[in-house]
Amino acid sequence: MGKKYFIAGTDTDAGKTLVATGLLEAANQQGLKTLAIKPVAAGCEHSEGGLRNSDALLLQQAMSGDLPYEQVNPIALEPAIAPHIAAEQLGKQLRVAQLAGYCRGVMTQASDFLLIEGAGGWRVPLNRMETLAGLAKELNTPVILVVGMKLGCISHALLTVEAIQRDGLPLAGWVANRIDPEMSCYEENFATLKDLIPAPCLGAVPHLDNANGKVASQYLDISLLA
């Protein structure tokens, strides 16, 4: 069985997809067979093939394995709002068991390195009772946390780490992604996070004008994943 990880972020737009595609590219460069899933995505656009999410398409392009879009992103929602609200507006309900079933369908396929990308932050609701964190718990996958480096990120990161630990999941590693190029005291904030997050830092991705997985992979070290 290959390694499987859940990609979580400290917030919306923390850079989960950039880091996920970077990790996939890094694994590809080692000759590993990689797969990725974004089980639910809001903010999808119409195409000839149906609704498509830009982040899911990037994951599909970055993986070395071959999956149809419907397996990469089984639940595609058009409104660019919180997934549970988007689903409610469309008369649908999201459930952990449903998403876990989609993920397990992909997890049964042979791979060396598989990523499941979440949506938003750790406690994004799926319905009035469940959050997306429940999917990571149901699948029992170690978590890679993407910290969007900006003012206030230390508290966001540490609270997310506490929630992951409270949910009984191992934190396999974390990545600093500089989303604010003007962030004050970046190095000091980064050093504080390295001291306080009880997991290896897999890398620090600088602010990139033309951000993509291949460039991000240069700043990531997957050998640090246990």
TrEMBL record:
It comes from the Bacteria. InterPro entries: DTB_synth_BioD (IPR004472), P-loop_NTPase (IPR027417). Its main location: cytoplasm. Gene3D superfamilies: P-loop containing nucleotide triphosphate hydrolases (3.40.50.300). ATP binds at residues 13-18, 55, 117-120, 177-178, 206-208. Its cofactor is Mg(2+). Its EC number is 6.3.3.3. It is found in: Cytoplasm. One of its GO terms (cellular component) is cytosol. Catalyzes a mechanistically unusual reaction, the ATP-dependent insertion of CO2 between the N7 and N8 nitrogen atoms of 7,8-diaminopelargonic acid (DAPA, also called 7,8-diammoniononanoate) to form a ureido ring. Homodimer. NCBIfam families: bioD (TIGR00347). Belongs to the dethiobiotin synthetase family. This is ATP-dependent dethiobiotin synthetase BioD. It comes from Dasania phycosphaerae.
